[in-house]
Amino acid sequence: MALIEEMELQGNKWFRYRSYIPLIFLVVGLGVFAYSAWKHLSVLEAYPLYKNVFENVCLAVSLLGLAIRIYTVGYTPANTSGRNTKDGQVADELNTTGIYSTVRNPLYLGNFLMWLGIAMLTANIWFIISFCFLYWIYYERIIFAEEQFLRRKFGDVYLEWTKVTPAFFPKFSRYKKPVYPFSWKKVLKKEKNGLAALFIVFAIFHITERLIGFYLPQTPGDAPMQFNYITIGTVGCLVTCVLYLILKILKTYTKVLDTEGR
After folding, report:
1. d(CA 132, CA 145)
2. Mean pLDDT in order along the chain per 10 residues (262 residues)
3. Residue 77 exposure: Cα atoms within 13 Å on the Cβ side
4. Domain parsing of the chain, residue ranges
């Protein structure tokens, strides 16, 4: 099999599971984070104030990624920019305005920043570099498979768009106003999972660190860490989980979040 066909085959296979495979990064990252907290390997432990600032910076990076996803999804029509994990590639039309006029893969850019903020929580430079490298290899195949699909379906229109639009790093000077109006209903319907999951992950990291500090003081004579649950991440976790349940009920039992053509 030619390499071009093999890469497309790999991309189509990974495309179906692209919402789940990154969870491996999460498990490994949490392990690295827990080990560092247990062995007091993080240099930030000596500077509590800077540590809190750093955690908020990590959250801000992830929220920036989520904001990019929200902006992207809010302006797109139905059957584009979707998850499509069971049915494979779907594209009723080619998105070339709004954020798609500046970058070809804004959702994957948003995903990268969301996961990068989580990877940064480990404060382990080698893990962060490894994450970036593996993310690039993983999504390179997916993007390649998607581009092959779009090239076959839209032909020269797609090729002309790719000539002037970067694949991953936005070129803001090329911005064009979106064709469709922004739809908060679509955003709430599609992005509720990511919003809740993001704050749940940050809360898990925080609670893991507090449990280790509370039960496993490493230096004789050290007092156990005070178990403080109240952080931006944990409060956000509670709020977004309640919001998720409300939106899930609305989506399942009503048509409040439905918008024609979106």
Report:
1. 20
2. 77 78 89 87 69 88 97 87 56 87 96 96 94 91 90 92 94 93 92 93 88 63 49 80 94 86 72
3. 12
4. 3-253
SS3 label, residue 98:
strand
Could you give phi then psi for residue 165, rounded to 5 degrees? -120, 120
The token pair at 219 is 């230096």
CB 114 within 8 A of CB 198: yes
- Helix residue spans in the chain (DSSP H): 3-16, 22-39, 48-74, 106-120, 125-154, 156-164, 184-215, 232-253
DSSP, res 179? S
Handedness of CA 62, 63, 64, 65 (dihedral sign): positive
Question: Rounded CA gap, 92 and 205, in Å?
Answer: 40
**Cα(131)–Cα(116) distance, integer angstroms:** 8
Residue 97 phi, psi (nearest 5): -115, 175
CB 29, CB 58: distance < 8 Å: no
Angle of helix 106-120 relative to helix 184-215, nearest 10 degrees, comes to 20
First to last CA, the chain: 39
Query: Which of 96, 70, 113 minimizes the C-alpha distance to 165?
Result: 96
Give the span between the Cα atoms of 90 and 149, in whole angstroms: 9
Task: Report in angstroms the alpha-carbon separations of 132 from 186, 198, 246.
Answer: 30, 18, 35
The answer to whether 117 and 60 are in contact (CB under 8 A) is yes
> If you search the block for the tokens 């993080």, which residue do you land on?
42
pTM across the whole model = 0.87
